[in-house]
Amino acid sequence: MVYQLQQVSVRYQDHHALQDISCTIEAGQWISVIGQTGAGKSTLVQVLKGLIPLFQGEYLVDDQTVATDAKGKVKVRPEIGYVFQYPEHQLFETTVAKELAFAPKQQRWSASEIKQRITAILPQVGLSEDILELAPFQLSGGQKRRVALASVLMMNPQVLIVDEPTAGLDPVGRTDMLQWLQQWQQQENRTLILVSHHMDDVAQYSDEVLLLHQGRLIGQYDPVTLFIEQSHLLEQSGLVLPESIQLLKLIEQCSGQKIEIDSCREQDIFAKIIPVWHRKEQTFG
Amino acid sequence: MANPVLIGQYVETHSIIHRLDPRTKLISLFIFMLSLIWLNTGISYIVASLFVVMIVGITRIPVVIFWRGLIPLVVILLFTFVYNMLFTEGSIIWSWGWLHITIEGLENGVRLVWRIILLVILAAILTLTTKPLTLAYGLEKLMYPLGKLNVPIEQFSLMIVIAIRFIPTILEELERILLAQKARGYDITTLRLPQRVLAYIPILVPLLFMIVQRAEHLSDAIDARAYGKGKGRTSYRQLQWQSIDYIVMIIAILIALGLLLLNIMKI
């Protein structure tokens, strides 16, 4: 499915949270939404999910306009899964089993279907069935986050929105989470929308990047265009370059040589800069 | 999060009532509310109502906000009216089995409901025109003499301030949970009222858990800043009586005395 926003604005009481946003979300891609705090990242993804009414503009799915009511509300899109920031704070059921069954019950799945799905999902997110009868509050922070993720994956979403999924995780947990998301997105050929402040993660995983600043969309770019060719836009939006790109620029400066890159993934950048660095070392001893 | 204006939430209109010392508002409203309890005659009700309408006008707060504050009380008001109408002795105008409607019952019902509405509007005037923390500070200052009797005024005041500070946090958490439910296909706002009330019950568990957790963190933070170890707390902002405060208090006392007089003289 292709999701499009055309000149969409969102208002919260007396201020515009989003202004005149037009963008396209193609199927099967990893799209990252970046911007400073308060730039409108979470609002944008909530609009896509159908949680927030539009003040102006149009929302299209596969070129069909999504109907809005008088208040600009659209129907919540069931095929889009949404994992909120600090998802563990949004666990509300009394047991993990009930938490996982919440959304399927709304869709009137049978008990056996729910059980089957739970059995399939739990190992995918690295959880065992022993926790099913525990209260979510009894779990560790990491387990809670996995339960929250599993509860969204229960509905087998075509698009998964993850709002700052690594907030509050240690570096190992952060890498684990992102690698798991990438594996899921690629294996299942799904669309993933990541909201993030971490430019390193964005550069590492994204196919496309939406850059927001003060409620406006600066642009929709592929990572190489944004981080290499248009990097001034990041600075203008109050963001910093990924560390690997900073290193690349430093080595370019030291060696006086322009390094051509076609991917912003850390391993690809290192593969390009290490030979240049070695040559420079040999030249100057 | 897009919270609508909450019932009783501070609304800034820069009116003269907003600028009054919180102690003036507390004292004046207390005196005037006391005088409402004595209301008995029709004229006294009209005078009191006109006075309340006048204050509402001075606040420049849209009437719809006061109206919104009354909506949750409709059931209580209705119950009060029906109870008085059916169970007051007097001249019966309609009866069915053991149920009797009397003229005195109808009068009592209307009076009581009217009195409650006036009291609620007055309370709303206080909260709509005074910032919660200013109100708590005013309350602390008014209770200051009790401190001499070893009543822990400072702790009491801190308690109120923390309670007020927690209201938006709780609402934010509640909204998060509701949004998480909506994202998973369950929109509580589309339910009818009785079902909606029932649907809120399971949410109370995680909400209470969150509140207790936050309260624990806060008490640790307060302890970490050595609360209660040194001399009494001082305040950055000091309250000062202005001439307008004295004028307002005198007017409140005069109106209260006037209402008392009207009721004594049965006018």
UniProtKB/TrEMBL annotation, chain A:
Residue ranges annotated for the ABC transporter domain, each copy included: 3-239
Recorded family membership: Belongs to the ABC transporter superfamily.
SUPFAM superfamilies documented for this protein: P-loop containing nucleoside triphosphate hydrolases
GO MF annotation list: ATP binding; ATP hydrolysis activity; ATPase-coupled transmembrane transporter activity; cobalt ion transmembrane transporter activity
Record key words, sorted: ATP-binding, Cell membrane, Hydrolase, Membrane, Nucleotide-binding, Translocase, Transport
CDD domains: ABC_cobalt_CbiO_domain1
Record has Calcium as a keyword: no
EC number: 3.6.3.-
Top-rank EC class of the record's enzyme: hydrolase
Domain of life: Bacteria
SMART domains in UniProt: AAA
Name of this chain's protein: Zinc import ATP-binding protein ZnuC
Gene Ontology cellular component annotations, sorted alphabetically: ATP-binding cassette (ABC) transporter complex
Protein topology in the membrane: Peripheral membrane protein
Cellular compartment(s): Cell membrane
Keyword check for Hydrolase: yes
From TrEMBL, chain B:
CDD domains tied to this protein: EcfT (cd16914)
Annotated localization: Membrane
GO cellular component, one term: plasma membrane
Pfam families: CbiQ
Keyword Membrane: yes
Membrane topology label: Multi-pass membrane protein
Top-level taxonomic group: Bacteria
UniProt keywords, alphabetically: Membrane, Transmembrane, Transmembrane helix
Coiled-coil spans in chain: none
Name of the protein in question: Energy-coupling factor transporter transmembrane protein EcfT
Organism of provenance: Paenibacillus nuruki
